[in-house]
Design goal:
heterodimer; A: mainly beta; 7-stranded mixed β-sheet; 4-stranded antiparallel β-sheet; B: mainly beta; 11 strands; about 0% helix; globular
């Protein structure tokens, strides 16, 4: 039973570029959430996707956007990259939009470095 | 928005010692969670708490949901080398997964041989 898989594992970009990160949820899950974890900090909620729509959003600018596909996989897009966007980006999946938190499974993340 | 203050920031302990860490919030939460994160991995859920005053154990781990709903603590008894890692508290204001979790900054647990 595959868990949450994210790609790529590491990525280096320069300021102003755009980046796309990918996530495949755990088998049987239909909801995907994205978190940003800066060095030395806890994860911060970016947004959640359910039924191919953004359902909830944290305090992140519009440069951060996403998409969910019919197979429940998801992408996180960041435009006009800033140095401060350097972080570990975590994807978490669950079953159902209102599932309780013990059902939330995290991937290993994509480490993004912006130079 | 909500902020979680987690302490201590780091702990240096001897193997076999008990560990205690806590988390306080400026806002009320109705769910408290404790996660462990190893290097290069995502957080893994250790304990979930859903009711004020609740005390829950998972092996050598015990966590409590404060009665004010603004705090929680995690205890680890008889620490072993594999307990090394970063422990995060997380809270959620609403009952479902639709609202994202608010995480603390983590407690880095280091076990000295």
């Amino acid at each position: 039973d595959a868990g949450v898989t994210q790609s790529p594992t590491h990525l280096i970009k320069t300021r102003g570029q755009q980046v796309t990160l990918r996530c495949s949820p755990k088998s049987g899950h239909d909801t995907v959430s994205w978190y940003q974890q800066a060095l030395g900090q806890g994860p911060q909620f970016i947004f959640q996707y359910y039924e191919e729509e953004e359902r909830q959003r944290g305090n992140f600018p519009d440069r951060f956007s996403g998409h969910q596909f019919p197979n429940y996989s998801s992408e996180l897009n960041v435009n006009a990259l800033l140095l401060g966007d350097s972080a570990l980006y975590l994807c978490a999946s669950s079953l159902g939009q209102l599932s309780t938190n013990e059902k939330l499974f995290f991937g290993s993340g994509t480490q993004l470095s912006v130079l | 928005g909500q902020q979680l203050n987690q302490s201590p920031q780091s702990m240096f302990i001897q193997e076999g010692e008990d560990v205690s860490m806590n988390c306080t919030s400026s806002s009320i939460f109705n769910t408290w969670l404790w996660y462990k994160q190893d290097p290069g991995e995502g957080p893994v859920l250790l304990i979930a708490l859903y009711k004020a005053g609740e005390l829950t154990s998972n092996g050598r781990l015990t966590a409590q949901f404060g009665i004010t709903r603004k705090d929680s603590f995690l205890n680890i008894s008889a620490s072993i080398p594999s307990d090394v890692g970063i422990y995060f508290c997380a809270g959620q204001l609403f009952g479902g997964g639709a609202d994202g979790l608010t995480f603390g900054k983590g407690t880095h647990l280091i076990i000295q041989p």
